[in-house]
Design a protein that fits this description.
The chain has 321 residues and is mainly alpha-helical. It has 15 helices and two strands. This is Sugar ABC transporter permease.
Length: 321
C-alpha cells in the first residue's frame, strides 16, 4: 500500500445511505390512520346515544301514546307538548326541587370527598388502606342492596336511626318517626343516601390529584411562612383545580339525573307527587311517550345550562395550556 502524498488529507468516507424523505402522501398516512381508529367509537356513540336522542326529540313534537304503539299513526303537534309542560306550575316546582337537590348534594359530596381525600393523603399506611377499602365497599355495593340497608336503618318501627335518637339522645318524639312521609325529611334521607354513594368517587379522584402536587412546592411554601390552611388554599387547590372542575361537573350531572334512590324511597311509602324529581317525574309520564320525551328534552337543556359555565372554564384552561 502506498502512502498518501504529504499535505494531502484523507478523503472522508461517504455517509451511510439514508432513505429519501417520505412523500406528502406517506406523511398523511399516520393522521389518516388515527382518524380511522376513531371510527368504531364514533359509530358506537352515534348508534348508542345519537339515535335515542334524535328519537326522543322527534317524539317530543308528536302526539305519541299507547295507541301509536299498536299502529295508529303519530300526529305532529309541534310545540304543544312543551307548552303544556312549561305552563304547568307543578312542572316548575319539580324543576326547582331538582335543581336545589342537585346543588345541595353536589356541594356536600365535594366538601366531604375533599376532606376525606386530604385525610387519606396525610394518615399512615394502615389507616389509608382502611379508608380505601371502606370507600371501595361503599362504592361497589349495588344500588338496590344499598337502598335495602338504608330503608332498614330509617324504618319507623325497627330502624336503628330512630332508636339512637330516642334512647341515647332522649328524643322520645323520634321513636316512631316516619322519615318518608314528610317531603323535607324524605329529601334529608335521600341526600344522605346519594352523598354516601357518591363520596368514594370524589375521594379517589381528588386523592389521585393530590398525589401529583410536588412536595418541593409545598416545602417552599412552608419555608415562606405559609401555614397548613394557606398551603392548602393557595397551593394545593389551584394545582388540582382541573380535577375539581371535572368532578364537580360530573356530580352536578349525576345528581340532577338521580332516579333509583328517589324511586325506591317513594315505593317504600313516600307521597310521590310531593317528592318527585325530574327523573321520577319523567318515569311517571311513561304512558305518554311524547310528554315524557318533551320533559326529557327539557331536562337535557337544563343540564347543559347548569354545566355550561364549567365547560367554558375547562375549555379556557385547555387553551391556556
Amino acid at each position: 500500500m502506498s502512502a498518501l502524498p504529504a499535505g494531502r488529507a484523507a478523503t472522508p468516507a461517504p455517509p451511510p445511505f439514508s432513505p429519501a424523505p417520505a412523500t406528502g402522501r406517506r406523511r398523511r398516512r399516520p393522521a389518516l390512520g388515527a382518524h380511522l381508529l376513531l371510527v368504531p367509537a364514533t359509530v358506537g356513540i352515534l348508534v348508542g346515544l345519537g339515535y335515542p336522542l334524535a328519537r326522543q326529540l322527534v317524539l317530543s313534537f308528536q302526539e305519541y301514546g299507547l295507541a301509536q304503539q299498536f299502529g295508529r299513526p303519530a300526529e305532529w303537534v309541534g310545540l304543544d307538548n312543551y307548552t303544556t309542560l312549561l305552563s304547568d306550575p307543578y312542572v316548575w316546582a319539580v324543576i326547582g326541587r331538582s335543581i336545589a337537590f342537585c346543588l345541595v348534594n353536589a356541594l356536600l359530596t365535594m366538601a366531604i370527598g375533599m376532606a376525606l381525600a386530604v385525610l387519606m393523603a396525610r394518615v399512615g399506611r394502615a389507616a389509608r388502606m382502611t379508608l380505601q377499602v371502606s370507600m371501595l365497599l361503599a362504592w361497589g355495593t349495588p344500588v338496590l342492596a344499598t337502598m335495602t340497608v338504608w330503608q332498614w336503618l330509617f324504618d319507623s318501627q325497627y330502624g336503628v336511626v330512630n332508636w339512637l335518637l330516642a334512647e341515647p339522645l332522649g328524643m322520645e318524639g323520634m321513636r316512631y318517626h316516619s322519615w318518608l312521609i314528610e317531603p323535607l325529611s324524605f329529601y334529608a334521607v335521600a341526600t344522605v343516601v346519594v352523598v354516601w354513594m357518591s363520596v368514594p368517587f370524589v375521594v379517589f379522584t381528588v386523592y389521585a390529584g393530590l398525589l401529583q402536587v410536588p412536595a418541593e412546592t409545598m416545602e417552599a411554601a412552608q419555608l415562606d411562612g405559609a401555614n397548613a390552611w394557606q398551603r392548602f388554599r393557595l397551593v394545593t387547590v389551584p394545582m388540582v383545580k382541573p380535577v375539581l372542575f371535572v368532578v364537580l361537573l360530573l356530580q352536578v350531572i349525576w345528581d340532577l339525573r338521580v332516579f333509583t334512590q328517589i324511586y325506591v324511597l317513594q315505593r317504600a311509602g313516600a307521597p310521590t307527587r310531593e317528592t318527585h324529581l325530574l327523573g321520577t317525574y319523567i318515569y311517571s309520564l311513561a304512558k305518554e311517550f311524547s310528554m315524557a320525551g318533551a320533559m326529557a328534552t327539557i331536562m337535557l337543556v337544563l343540564t347543559l345550562a347548569l354545566t355550561a359555565f364549567y365547560i367554558r372554564r375547562m375549555l379556557r384552561q385547555e387553551e391556556d395550556l
